[in-house]
Design a protein that fits this description.
Order of helices and strands: HEEEEEEEHH
Helix content: 10-25%
Strand order of the largest sheet: 1-2-3-6-7
CATH class: Alpha Beta
Number of strands: 7
CATH topology: Peptide Deformylase
Distance between the termini: 26 Å
CATH superfamily: Peptide deformylase
């Protein structure tokens, strides 16, 4: 399909909870293809629809040998163990910080055709699922950093060359695409 511009930290669409997908049609399949193409082009492990300006609950992932997408995802935490590791985001380019996540999760949702999916796998995939689901809830990984690291992260973000740049916005034929409710 096509590579779309990624929205950066500061864009309101990244802080707005996304709307559930109600129609599983050709437009949704194009969105999944665009998310996948953009994620691969940018070298990411995952990409959520709000990151390309579309406020719908969809993300694509290609992480640690696991690849696919989830529509209207949720996840269940398995066990009490946590992982602490470097995390980055295509919407906060070239910056990474240590972030705490659940070690194991099982994600549930639907594929682009409306068929139910369950996804589980490695610890890296668990991190990716949590990160991308956060995007759909209007949460960025910097919100999950400890206070001292978050303060440092915000200073680095404000100093980044890309911070404050106006996003490239394409007009979409979809009623919700590119709009924030």
């Amino acid at each position: 399909m096509s590579v779309q511009p990624v929205r950066f930290f500061g864009d309101p669409v990244l802080r707005t909870p996304a709307v559930e997908v109600a129609t599983f049609d050709a437009e949704l399949r194009r969105l999944v293809a665009d998310l996948t193409d953009t994620m691969h082009d940018e070298g990411g492990a995952g990409l959520a629809a709000p990151q390309i300006g579309i406020s719908l609950r969809v993300f694509a992932y290609d992480c640690d040998g696991f690849a696919g997408h989830l529509v209207n995802p949720t996840f269940d935490v398995v066990g009490d163990e946590e992982q602490y590791g470097l995390e980055g985001c295509l919407s906060i380019p070239e910056l990474r910080w240590e972030c705490r996540r659940h070690l194991h999760v099982v994600a549930h949702g639907w594929d682009q055709h409306g068929e139910p999916l369950t996804v589980e796998g490695s610890e890296l995939l668990a991190r990716c699922i949590q990160h991308e689901t956060d995007h759909l809830d209007g949460v960025l990984f910097v919100d999950r950093l400890d206070p001292e690291t978050r303060k440092q992260a915000m200073a680095e973000i404000r100093a980044a060359e890309w911070f404050g740049a106006a996003p490239e916005v394409k007009v979409s034929p979809h009623p919700l695409f590119g709009k924030v409710r």
